[in-house]
Design a protein that fits this description.
With 240 residues, the chain is α/β, with parallel strands linked by helices. The protein has one domain: 3-Layer(aba) Sandwich (Rossmann fold), CATH 3.40.50.300. Helix content is 45%, strand content 14%. The chain has a seven-stranded mixed beta sheet with strand order 1-2-7-6-3-5-4, sandwiched between helices. Helix 1 packs across helix 9, helix 3 runs antiparallel to helix 5 and helix 6 crosses helix 7.
Length: 240
């Protein structure tokens, strides 16, 4: 099904393992499904739409900021690992300084991830446990590195938002003002989007207009609700 360059489709056939993907989650009391994508593919726009419908979305990027907030153990460990240059004059994490090094050097990135990822995982699990205790039947975990970290099967069904490489670069440059070289460096630091698509249960191709992306995001969430035995009306779609 296509609409202005955006496609949403289920991917029920698994190629990388003998374990079949489950399509019916209705027997589970709480489903935490995954949302991922590549650089400037539109993952955050999909997550924002689902939040506007009332779905709880756990944002790994937000958790990444929290685990290195001022005064945190995470920030102290980053300073020990990378030195005082990793902090601004006010004692906060200098994200631009660190980003230039992380996306230029895989070893630096691995050192940073060894500090932040366990803390992000613990924080995400705590948020999910809290939602389950409150009786939420469904929630989304939004993270760029779900597949890279080998966690695709922990967040089924997995939704991947994809876009053509040229569109990714153009959007990244226009959105954040980074250079094309910086955009390509960030893109290279991630797994190629087709590798993520191969592991997806649902794919949303975002090569067109925002209205089409929102329409397909709604369609996919409705289908996930039905598979989980949840009335999609629990998460009503506001006007676009």
């Amino acid at each position: 099904m296509t609409c202005a360059g955006v496609i949403a489709y289920p991917c029920p056939i698994i190629k990388r393992t003998e374990i079949p993907r489950a399509c019916d989650y209705s027997s589970m009391a709480f489903v935490l499904f995954g949302l991922t994508g590549g650089l400037a593919c539109g993952k955050s726009s999909v997550a924002a739409r689902w939040r506007s419908r009332g779905l709880a979305v756990i944002d790994a990027d937000q958790l990444a900021r929290e685990v290195v907030a001022n005064g945190s153990d995470g920030l102290r460990e980053v300073e020990l690992a990378f030195g005082p240059d990793a902090l601004t004059g006010s004692g906060e994490l200098d994200r631009q300084w660190l980003a230039r090094r992380v996306f230029a050097d895989p070893e630096v990135r691995q050192r940073l991830e060894a500090i932040t990822h366990p803390r992000i995982t613990d924080a995400a699990n705590a948020r999910a446990d809290d939602l389950a205790r409150k009786g939420e039947p469904l929630a989304c975990y939004e993270a760029t590195l779900i597949v890279e970290r080998g966690r695709a099967d922990l967040y089924r069904p997995l939704v991947v938002v994809s876009a053509r490489e040229d569109i990714q670069i153009a959007r990244a440059v226009a959105r954040s003002g980074m250079s094309e070289d910086d955009a390509r460096a960030r893109q290279r630091a991630q797994l190629p989007i087709d590798r993520k698509v191969a592991l997806a249960d649902w794919v949303i191709e975002n090569n067109g207009e925002m209205a089409a992306l929102i329409a397909r995001a709604d369609q996919v969430l409705d289908e996930i609700c039905r598979a989980a035995g949840v009335d999609p009306g629990r998460y009503p779609a506001p006007p676009v």
